[in-house]
Amino acid sequence: MQYTVGRYLAERFAQIGIEHHFAVAGDYNLILLDELLEGGRTKQVYCSNELNCGFAAEGYARARGIAAAIVTFNVGAFSALNAIGGANAENLPVILVSGAPNTNDLGSGRILHHTIGTPDYSYQLEIAKYLTCAAESIIDPQQAPAQIDRVIRMAVLHKKPVYLEIACNLSNAPCAAPGPIEGVIEEVPTNHKALSDAVDAAVAFLKNKKKPTLLIGTRIRSVKGEEAAVKLSDSLGCAVATMASSKSYFPESNPHYIGTYWGEVSDPGVQKVFDTSDAMICLGTVFNDYSTSGWTSEPYKKEIIQVHPWHVEVGGKSFSGVHLRDFVLALAEKVTKNSKALEEFKASGAKRPEIKAANPSDALTCAELSRQIQGMLNPHSTLFLETGDSWFHGVAMTLPKGARVESEMQWGHIGWSVPSVFGYAVGAAPQRQVIAMIGDGSFQLTAQEVAQMIRNNLPVIIFLLNNNGYTIEVKIHDGPYNRIKNWDYAGIIAAFNAQDGEGKGLKAGTGKELEEAIKIAVANKKGPTLIECALDSEDCATTLVKWGKLVAKANSRPRKAD
Ligand code: DPX
Ligand code: MG
């Protein structure tokens, strides 16, 4: 078979596990979409707009490890780039492919549609370079295979998004056939000298420490270090906590697990154990203003062992070329058991407060909503937590083994979860139960993507927390801008269904109504079910109020005098 640029790309997609790619059509990418389809090895899934297309790919990457989104020039790509920034922040390899001007127009001085009206079309590539770890413009079919392979390699190695633009007259241009995929995706091996020196330094650091602890951060997932962390905790016997953004990245059923470390809003008893630990081992952690509750807890200011995806810092020395997983496994072989932190935690008797069942006919509260969602979770559940009060309810839940949580706490784009949960459901195994907690304000940004869940018969269950506005913002800094126009959220599903959809829209105003709605949602396997949950606008997690005040204080620090 004669390969073309588009078919070469399709073949590479199939070889790296991209069984579906997400797309919005436009005249700069139509031939490319044809070529991708004709290869027949990757399916096309359509989105309502390019922001959603980028986030759908981001969600697919959460389920499958890598994803692709295909968009048109400027008008499409610029919307998608927001989601690509998110994929970068969240360490998810997404390949963004944009159709681009015809090669005959390059350097011609002509003005093209969808551009800002200058004859220089290079600005999209330049912007993409800031947001990705590799960006290429294909203007010659002969060079296309090497360019495509280079961006894929960078995405796989760095677990970050990449960008390709393909001149619209080149997608069907003949090019070389793809060689073995191994040469593109093979991992770089850890450097043995750096590894053994890093492990020796860590063992020396831990030697006279009284209370080691293990903290799990977001980057552990992208480098597949989760099982290694369990081994290290077994050898060390210490207490383990996850950060809020890494909930579910360490099994909560494991006897070493004590809860979420989130500064002042940590799970009961966890902050004390970690703040008094003299040897925190931080695996893939990222500390920002949100995760430190407005800089009120800054664990990285202590002496710690900081393990990044590809380098380790310990005892005042930095070791590059050491893969997180290799370091953790090698350290697990050498550490001495020290269960002091875990014993101290157990002796404190601290545990997550149990939520008591509400009177079934009382007005629904967010506590009752949390309790019922907690009751639904099983080993096959994945719970998406949208930015807002949902974070705090989800983080406080106890997860059965195998249950996963997805959130986007670094980028924090409200509306992320609707398209991301769509993309995730496209990529997830059929037995996965996909659930999302989404605030009313967030939903209004990207609601259209529920229509794509309907189109693809995906049984996603959405809990729409209708508290009449931006409650998290109310707690950070209130004003009239935190009130939003109410929608008939459950009612929109009928509009999206039109003549052939199988989505369901339900309303719950009491605990009893919620219980009934959940039963219907669980039984609906032919499409999404949205349960609109009526909540009082002041009703939110107590941790949100506490955290909101701390973040507000950090945001309003006066400028320091010169
Ligand atoms: C904003 C946020 O209704 O959730 O639980 O009521 O807060 P809660 P909602 O979804 O409201 C979300 C709202 C407006 N953040 O409280 S968190 C600012 C913001 C953002 N992302 C984008 N624009 C604005 N995070 C894209
Ligand atoms: Mg709200």
UniProtKB/TrEMBL annotation:
Q: Which residues form the Thiamine pyrophosphate enzyme central domain?
A: 199-316
Organism's domain of life?
A: Bacteria
The Gene Ontology biological process terms listed for this entry are: aromatic amino acid family catabolic process to alcohol via Ehrlich pathway
Q: What class of enzyme is it?
A: lyase
- The gene designation is pdc
Q: What is its EC number?
A: 4.1.1.1
InterPro entries, alphabetized: DHS-like_NAD/FAD-binding_dom (IPR029035), PDC/IPDC-like (IPR012110), THDP-binding (IPR029061), Thiamin_PyroP_enz_cen_dom (IPR012000), Thiamin_PyroP_enz_TPP-bd_dom (IPR012001), TPP_enzyme_TPP-bd (IPR011766), TPP_PDC_IPDC (IPR047214), TPP_PYR_PDC_IPDC-like (IPR047213)
Which cofactors does this gene product need?
thiamine diphosphate; Mg(2+)
The record's similarity note reads:
Belongs to the TPP enzyme family.
| Annotated GO CC locations | cytosol
The UniProt record gives the binding positions of Mg(2+) as: 440, 467, 469
Question: Cross-referenced Pfam families, in alphabetical order?
Answer: TPP_enzyme_C, TPP_enzyme_M, TPP_enzyme_N
Query: What name appears for this protein in its UniProt entry?
Result: pyruvate decarboxylase
Keywords for this entry? Decarboxylase, Lyase, Magnesium, Metal-binding, Pyruvate, Thiamine pyrophosphate
Question: Which catalysed reactions does the entry list for this protein?
Answer: a 2-oxocarboxylate + H(+) = an aldehyde + CO2
